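The material for today's practical consists of a large collection of protein records. Read left to right, the backbone structure tokens trace the chain's path through space. An example says more than a description, so a record of this kind follows:
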Amino acid sequence: MELLYTGKTKNVFQLEDGHYLLKFKDDVTGENGVFDPGANTVGLTIDGAGLAGLRLTSYFYSKLNEQGVPTHYVDANFNDATMTVKPATVFGKGLEVICRFKAVGSFLRRYGAYVKEGQDLDSFVEVTIKDDDRLDPPISEDALAMLNLLTHEEYVILKQRTIEIAKFVAAELAKKGLTLYDIKLEFGRDAKTNEILLIDEISGGNMRAYKGGQYIEPLELEKIMLAE
């Protein structure tokens, strides 16, 4: 098992069978000790955050696989806080795709002159470049195509799949009385078939969920969602 990459919240290893192993860490993104799923830096460490993220990711990915949504998920080992995934290549140096149902986070910071916090948004999708130095700038469909990161046809698939997955997650949260405000997803191309796959994770670390207007922390979200 070879360490390929050390990320903010996960380490990536290559396995002998061609799959990859993601090791979830307790580090979470944020600033000044405050958790923020949209932040570009590790802001704090929360004991148990890695396993909680893995458990929730496994829950969502298993259901998506059953529904035929293409993902890189193979299986998970909760004892080691690891997830086995199929190999996939990212678009350029990586893209993040956000689906927004409410105006919060960076959307509110950018467009606060025109929207109020918590204002309803209609499954608004935006793509950003993974570039910490430039604070993950948003990028348009035309720019993605001009820079040879995504074709227009791939962008349509990416957007449709993002909305489909986000609405699925929102429906799952709603069963527990929770409201999904926004969620950040990542996609890549299957290394063998070139099919667009959902990659990385779906957990409290990359979404904002609320109950009665109160934000739910990642560990609490995992407890609520996986409670019998």
In short: The two ends are 35 Å apart (CA to CA). The chain has five helices and 16 strands. The first helix runs from residue 49 to 66.
